[in-house]
Amino acid sequence: MTLRRRVGMAAAIAVAIAVALVACVSYFVVRNQLRGQIDDELRAQANVIVRHAGLNSPFPGIPASAGGPAPYAELVLADGSAYGRQGDITLPVNSHMTAVATGNSGPYVADVRVGGSHLRELAFQIPGAFQGQPVAVVLARPLNSIDNVLRRLRLILLVLGLGAIALAVGLGRLAAKRVLAPLAEVADTAQHIGETEDLASRIHVHADDEVGQLARRFNAMLERLEASRAALDESVRAQRQLVADASHELRTPITSLRTNIEVLLAHERLGEDERRRLLADVVEQTEDLSTLVSDLIALARGEAPGEPIEGVRLDGVVTSSLERARRNFPHVEFIGRLEPIVVEADPGRLERAVNNLLDNAARHSPPNGRVEVEVDAEGVRVRDHGPGVAEEDLPYIFDRFYRGSDARGRQGSGLGLAIVRQVAEQHHGTVSASNAPDGGAVFALRLATAPPDPTEEELPAPAADPQGAGGLTTRA
What we know:
The protein is α+β, with helices and mostly antiparallel strands.
């Protein structure tokens, strides 16, 4: 059974109960009023008879305006005999009447049926009023007219009750349809989403009630699901793009490596110099391939947890990276201006990012060029004195595999600066690139920093990143 039908039935049942209660109360109120009027008329005549203390026939009555005298009356003695009947109906004698005559019972009122007549009778005592004997006077009035009125009233109440219930069923279904329309809209929207996977659908909020609150919460849930799905789609797209880009980047060194190896195998008469040159190329291509794989692994780690976040001396990390850079690039002069600074970071990833910035600057510096490194409360800034970055390349310099137009022929995979940006975002920082007014490029890694505690000993620099320092991005 549908919810709409159940609500309509519940409304009909509630109305039916209410109508039945009202009808019963109305019926019994009218019945008691009509029968109470008859009882009042009987008692009024009884009072008149008692005041006159006479049993002359006919019995004294009450004025017509008060209902007139009772049409039926008789006297009942203690032995059960009846005298002085009035009217064309003989009232039956019972033990209650004899008890009233002897004084063993007080006045009583009861219904009695004689033939086809329904009567209301009152019995009361007048002591010694009949030849010195106690006697009970019985007065009776017909109830047939009242019964007819009550019968018509029952019929009217029944018809009205059935009509009210039928009307309640119809109105209940209409009200249920209107009230449950937003729920039906929620169900239709959920079905539409299930069939089409269209999370952009929304439910119209009709009113600020419970159903409206349900619609708003359903819309909020759809917004979160849509955002989650968009993020998931973007993640899948990025992964596919990473795989596609990695496949493209891996193809070149693998092809070159395979070609050199095939030449070494096919030409046994190569001179020693030529063989050494080919072997040197093989070693260099192997290193490039290892660097590219390391960078791909670093990017694929994404948000995966690394080492625990801890307080790291940023100046210590940069000092370690400068020593490494001086060994790898002896033709470049590295100048450091380092302030004691502490950052909350993953030491390994932070050092990898700094290494990539230094390697990137060194690769774009001329022979005997200079790279300046600064550490202060804003983070790390690395400046080289090379050709700088082309303006059209600045928006894309931190994208994966992006290489400027003048970077062709330079060593690198186009992943180093992408790793720097990833590390910055993982530590809630930023990285930017710009050109210095007097030439060269400036890269800034901004992190949340704090001065070191003067009571603590100097924090040691972290160990080198086990992934290595490869994966340098070449810039335009």
